[in-house]
Design a protein that fits this description.
Blueprint: H1 2-29, E1 31-34, E2 37-42, H2 44-55, H3 57-72, H4 96-114, H5 121-147, H6 149-156, H7 158-171, H8 174-182
Antiparallel strand pairs: 1-2
Helix pairs in contact: 1-2, 1-3, 2-3, 2-4, 2-5, 3-4, 4-5, 5-6, 5-7
């Protein structure tokens, strides 16, 4: 009986990881190119953070590794940006730093959620902010290799920071609200 229960739980975990992977890919398709930066605006960063918090550190990171693997093998999961390469080459383009930071951000956000940060609104926002900072740092650091830090901040941070703060304020309410409904 325990083996069947363990197998069922493993199946639920695998489906949950796949679900967050697919949600990340879907969120990437809701993207808008900006004329002054090679980095498109998308909502996938919030999907990464909510998914990491919901799945926990290990499974959250795994969902993003699976997402990156799907993109590397050529599946059309990366943000729709015709000027950016598809497949593995996307990881070496201007958005590569953001993408490669996804598993780390999901892990850290999930780790914080495992410690109860997802239970209250303010701590949930804090967990999301830490995860978002990892994504933004990865993106800006990657862009700065070719352009220098001031230009990287202009292309990969300043255009997004205000909207990203609004997104994490909204995302910060998702899990505390869900926990209220799930309380016995």
């Amino acid at each position: 009986m325990r083996a069947a229960s363990a197998n069922a739980w493993t199946g639920v975990q695998a489906l949950s990881v796949l679900f967050v992977t697919v949600c990340t890919a879907a969120a990437a398709q809701i993207s808008f190119p900006l004329p002054f930066t090679p980095v498109p605006f998308s909502i996938q960063d919030i999907t990464v953070l909510i998914g990491g918090a919901a799945l926990g550190s290990t499974l959250g990171a795994l969902s993003q590794i699976l997402y990156l693997m799907a993109g590397v093998v050529g599946l059309p999961v990366f943000a729709n940006a015709p000027e950016l390469p598809q497949g593995a080459a996307r990881l070496f383009g201007p958005t590569g730093g953001y993408l490669m930071a996804f598993p780390i951000a999901a892990f850290v956000t999930g780790w914080l959620a495992e410690r109860g940060f997802d239970r209250r609104y303010l701590t949930s926002i804090l967990a999301m902010a830490v995860g978002l900072a990892i994504i933004l740092f990865g993106g800006v650091a990657w862009i700065s290799r070719a352009t220098g830090v001031p230009a990287a901040l202009a292309a990969g941070f300043y255009p997004f920071v205000i909207i990203d703060v609004i997104k994490i304020i909204a995302a910060g309410s998702v899990l505390p609200t869900a926990w209220k409904f799930l309380k016995p």
